[in-house]
Amino acid sequence: QVQLQESGPGQVKPSQTLSLTCTVSTGSISGTTYYWSWIRQPTGKGLEWIGRIYTSGRPNYNPSLTSRVSISLDTSQKQFSLTLTSVTAADTAIYYCAAADYYGLTDYWGQGIRVIVS
Amino acid sequence: SYVLNQPPSVSVPPGKTARITCGGSNIGSKSVHWYQKKPGQAPEVVIYSDSDRPSGIPERFSGSNSGNTATLTISWVEAGDEADYYCQVWESSGDLVVFGGGTKLTVL
Hints:
The structure holds 2 protein chains of 2 kinds.
Chain A: E1 3-7, E2 11-12, E3 18-25, E4 35-42, E5 48-53, E6 60-61, E7 69-74, E8 79-84, E9 93-100, E10 106-109, E11 113-117
Parallel strand pairs in A: 2-11
Antiparallel strand pairs in A: 1-3, 3-8, 4-5, 4-9, 5-6, 7-8, 9-10, 9-11
Chain B: E1 9-12, E2 18-23, E3 33-37, E4 44-47, E5 61-66, E6 69-74, E7 83-91, E8 96-99, E9 103-107
Parallel strand pairs in B: 1-9
Antiparallel strand pairs in B: 2-6, 3-4, 3-7, 5-6, 7-8, 7-9
């Protein structure tokens, strides 16, 4: 069983950088086969995959966000993080951190954190 | 990039069968997962790998995938099934995860 918890500011000003952290409750973040992922749901819209990172590989990002997004992993703290630069109102969303398998099957989700760009 | 197309909404009376489609180019060659999303809650897997059901998900939920269309079928629909449903695949050429646009299931 994996538990995830997002943390970070609930509001970010336009043009600034959004930074979120996900803390993982599991035996070892690096000793699993999970892909540590970020997914968001903009207000009134559907789920959007942001990207993911594996303990031994480079991160992968949604092509629509790749110029602004970065995902990193801190195995010692059992955390992974999301950074999104140059935010606009379109980035207002609920952001979920999640644990998925290689094929994207996402079994574990955080509760989500609402971020407003204003 | 790979696109998954879902109808925006599906409405069925209680006790009837709901079918939610997910269209994509040769989607039958991919493994499709389905999520149920209720307001204020995180998504939950209801079908994975085209047609497998996680423990705790009622047998009323089933899935199929062939050609250019994957389908989530909910038999004997109940009021509690009212939610948004999303299909999802892994797109191998770009090593990307793709979600469909979502379908709002309304139980009349």
